[in-house]
Structures are given as structure tokens and as C-alpha cells.
TrEMBL record:
<keyword id="KW-0808">Transferase</keyword>
<dbReference type="InterPro" id="IPR008189">
    <property type="entry name" value="rRNA_ssu_MeTfrase_I"/>
</dbReference>
<keyword id="KW-0698">rRNA processing</keyword>
<dbReference type="Pfam" id="PF00590">
    <property type="entry name" value="TP_methylase"/>
</dbReference>
<comment type="similarity">
    <text>Belongs to the methyltransferase superfamily. RsmI family.</text>
</comment>
<dbReference type="InterPro" id="IPR014777">
    <property type="entry name" value="4pyrrole_Mease_sub1"/>
</dbReference>
<keyword id="KW-0963">Cytoplasm</keyword>
<keyword id="KW-0489">Methyltransferase</keyword>
<dbReference type="GO" id="GO:0070677">
    <property type="term" value="F:rRNA (cytosine-2'-O-)-methyltransferase activity"/>
</dbReference>
<keyword id="KW-0949">S-adenosyl-L-methionine</keyword>
<dbReference type="GO" id="GO:0005737">
    <property type="term" value="C:cytoplasm"/>
</dbReference>
<dbReference type="InterPro" id="IPR014776">
    <property type="entry name" value="4pyrrole_Mease_sub2"/>
</dbReference>
<feature type="domain" description="Tetrapyrrole methylase">
    <location>
        <begin position="8"/>
        <end position="207"/>
    </location>
</feature>
<comment type="function">
    <text>Catalyzes the 2'-O-methylation of the ribose of cytidine 1402 (C1402) in 16S rRNA.</text>
</comment>
<dbReference type="InterPro" id="IPR000878">
    <property type="entry name" value="4pyrrol_Mease"/>
</dbReference>
<protein>
    <recommendedName>
        <fullName>Ribosomal RNA small subunit methyltransferase I</fullName>
        <ecNumber>2.1.1.198</ecNumber>
    </recommendedName>
</protein>
<dbReference type="InterPro" id="IPR035996">
    <property type="entry name" value="4pyrrol_Methylase_sf"/>
</dbReference>
Amino acid sequence: MDQPTTGKLYLVPTPIGNLEDMTFRAIRVLKEADLILAEDTRTSAPMLKHFDIQNKMFAHHQHNEHQSSNEIIKFLLMGQNIALISDAGTPAISDPGFFLVREALKFNIAVECLPGATAFVPALVNSGFPTDKFCFEGFLPLKKGRQTRYKFLATEERTIILYESPHRLLKTLEEMATYFGADRQLSVSRELTKMFEETVRGTVTEVKTYFETHPIKGEFVICVAGAEEVEGKKKKKYGNEEDD
């Protein structure tokens, strides 16, 4: 008896807010998949219903991804096509997905990632900072290693991109003033693609002052000017004269 053809693992981006950002291809792949893996099935259910996607869902998140990946690999080896989605945006970008992709590749299972929504790209383009070179850090460590990471990034010459939650934003801005300097330029975007989308630009001090008196809601993307750009502006302002 012939062995079944191996299935394919699809990583499917979903809108980060505005449902009009869903692609035709993403809808087709999700409708054709034998199984949809969702970070939180309760969060994804309304979006799938909106696009009349009725396929069976299974929860795949950071707390069960190592265990569930074993079963998912079995289904893929049996020939089933499986689509992975996160709560919003592109799977594996500060969301579950990396471990499953790595496991699938170990078994020579085809993996295909569709292009689509992700929060850091529009935030970076909107920032006005250089986009030719940048480093994406995602969420910084909550405790252990956070200070070390700040010290390392303080001299990073590329544009730095970070994700932050609303309840930690002011604390993070306070830390940035300490490690990056109060005058470092920032661009902070929140609620991207949604009704109350907002981008605030200025120094660390200016941005912190703004959010101390304005609503802190939604997920935040923080773009930080690279150290090289900061130094370049200082030289342009004060001249590049050597000390006597």
C-alpha cells in the first residue's frame, strides 16, 4: 500500500485590527486546510466566522506548543494540510510558530508562509527613521536579562523595533530614558489599522509626557532611532571639531 503524501504546513497572517487587510489567498488557504491551529480559538472564531471559514480548529499556543507539535507532525505526515494562525498578524513573529516550523522541517514537511499583516512594518515605515537597516527585538525580557539587553541596544546603530503592552509602556519609557538617554528619538504607534490608530513621535521625555496624560490602550510598537543617527545629528548641530 502506498504511503500517503506528506501534507503542508501553512503559516497564515491574519489582520492586526482591520478585517479588510485579510487577503483572498489567506481566506482560500484557511478554507481548504484540513485543520486550523489558532493561538486562542475564542479570539479567532469571530474572524473566521466573518469570512465564512468553518474548518475545525485546535488550540496551539506558547503553553502547549511543544506537546501539541508532536500530534500536529503526525497529522502532516499522514497527508493533512494544516494552517497556523495567531491572534493577530503573522505567526512566529512574537507569537507561537517557530518551534512547529522547526519540527516540520526536521521531517522534511513542506512549510509555506503567506505574506500579510504584521504590526512592526507599518510602525517602522511611519516612524521616519531609516528603514534600510533595522533590528527587531519584539518583547524585551520581563525581568532576567532586561537590563543587559538595554545596555546592549544602547549602542545599536540601526533603527530598533520593540513591542510593548499598555500596562508596561510608561515603565519602559522610563527605562529607555535611563539607558538610551532622555533625548533619544522615538516613534510609538498603537492600535495600528484600527479606528483609534495613533503614532506619537518625539524624544523619550516628550513621548512619556504625552502618554502620562493620554489613554494607554492597545498594543504598542516602539521604534527607536539608532545610536549612529543620534550621534550624526549631534555632529551636524555642533560641528565635528576636535578638542583642543
